[in-house]
Amino acid sequence: MIWQCPVCHLPLEIGDSTWRCTNRHSFDCAREGYVNLLPVNKKRSKEPGDSAEMLQARHRFLEAGIYRPLVEAIVALLPYAPGRQLLDIGCGEGYYPRQLQEAGWPAQALAGVDISKAGIRMAAKSQADTQFVVASSVELPLAKDSVDHLLRVFAPAADAEMQRVLNPGGSLLDVAPGPEHLWPLKSALYDEPRQHAPPKPVEGFVPEVELRCCFPFKLQGREAIADFLAMTPFAWKGNSDVRRELELRESLKLEADFVVRRLICKK
């Protein structure tokens, strides 16, 4: 994987404490091991991306294994082959790279980017031998043709950027919400709930596999329900009275619905 300078786009030489290009732009490694490659002029707020509180709630939810069926679908479609490298776009606190490592991917073959510094800090702490970088998914700090696989779970990204950084014949594993995802909850919170639209085609990619991953799950206890609401847009959207009522429940039954696609890069 060839990281490039976000200022001049030249390759970065990776050192123990600093990443540097030949134009002498340098980027220090944080104590946790990650590197920030998001230029200040590209930030739209002081701390872009998900907050630490939202990420911690998501971490507790995911580590409880509730989305295990989705993990199994991802792992089945991303078997490791020697020499292959994978980038998780919008990796958050690093849950999916950790699951891939447990499934047999070497930590050094994995990397993750996210615009949230809090998320990247958490990811780097949990997976020291994997490269995690604060960066925009719209302008990935990677050289052309420098990675074999991309993983995108509910994350925005530019089609042209994904095509640029992938090797010819490389793959994108894309996970998007299916039409019935959390439908009872949406119906309760919104006056006019809408089903999720089918995922759009990704320009420059050919569909290879598409499957639906649907499963029920149950949140047990108020803390689990609060974490789930906090990690989603439901934390600030929808009927606040209904949300408060949900937070007082001792359990909540829901249905997950994901569309999982593997697409091949056309080059």
Describe what you observe in this structure.
With 267 residues, this protein is of the alpha/beta class. The chain has one domain (13-265): Vaccinia Virus protein VP39 (Rossmann fold). Helices cover 27% and strands 27% of the residues. Strands 4-7-6-5-8-9-11-10 form an 8-stranded mixed β-sheet, sandwiched between helices. Strands 1-2-3 form a 3-stranded antiparallel β-sheet, with no helix packed on it. Strand 6 (110-114), helix 4 and strand 7 form a beta-alpha-beta unit. Helix 1 (52-63) packs across helix 7 (222-230).
Uncertain runs with pLDDT below 50, 5 residues or more?
Answer: none
Question: What is the CATH homology-level superfamily?
Answer: Vaccinia Virus protein VP39
Average pLDDT, rounded to a whole number, is: 94
Shape: globular
H/E element order: EEEEHHEHEHEEHEHEHHE
Could you tell me the number of beta strands?
Answer: 11
What's the alpha carbon Rg, rounded to whole Å? 19 Å
Instruction: Please identify, by name, the CATH architecture.
Output: 3-Layer(aba) Sandwich
Strand content: 25-35%
Quote the distance from N terminus to C terminus. Answer: 18 Å
What structural class is derived from the secondary structure elements?
alpha/beta
